[in-house]
Design goal:
The protein is of the alpha+beta class. 18% of the residues lie in helices and 41% in strands. Strands 6-5-4-3-7 form a five-stranded antiparallel sheet, with no helix packed on it.
């Protein structure tokens, strides 16, 4: 019924398929909790050092993700070079865009900055022409900004 002269080729083909499948799975960026997804904060190393961005697209066929970096540029980064900082949907920090905060810099210098964006426990702040992501818990509120429109409506109900 079946020819035995093709049996060695079937075995080689099967083994090659298994090896190829394991390489594809290994190339996928994984964390302890799984894959990097849209909305996560991820870090990569650029020519200027570590850079944190928000993942704005799932990987394409060549495993490149699009990251929105603090300068509002969309940067394609290979998934193997990404490190997960925070999952999307993490508990939101008690900050709003527009809040004025104090940020400790190098040498314990304190810089006045404003919150641009909040993603869970991560805050994007802008100070003296520089913008970047940091942990919200390390910030101290100096002045409350305006509440987002949805929060103002929730307070009145």
């Amino acid at each position: 019924m079946f020819s035995t002269r093709f049996a060695p080729f079937k075995i080689v083909f099967l083994l090659a398929s298994i090896v190829l499948a394991s390489l594809v799975v290994a190339a996928e960026p994984k964390t302890k909790a799984g894959r990097i997804e849209v909305g996560d904060l991820a870090e990569y190393t650029s020519g200027m050092g570590p850079m944190v961005g928000e993942v704005i697209s799932a990987p394409d066929a060549s495993n490149y993700y699009l990251l929105l970096v603090p300068t509002e540029e969309q940067v394609p980064i290979n998934g193997t070079k990404l490190r997960l900082i925070q999952r999307a949907g993490a508990a939101k920090a008690p900050f709003n865009p527009g809040d004025v905060v104090d940020v400790r810099g190098n040498g314990n210098m304190v810089h006045r900055a404003s919150v641009v964006k909040v993603n869970g426990g991560g805050c994007q702040v802008k100070a003296q022409g520089m913008v970047g992501w940091g942990e919200c818990k390390k910030l101290r509120v100096v002045q409350q900004g305006t509440k987002p429109q949805g929060a103002a409506q929730a307070d009145t109900e």
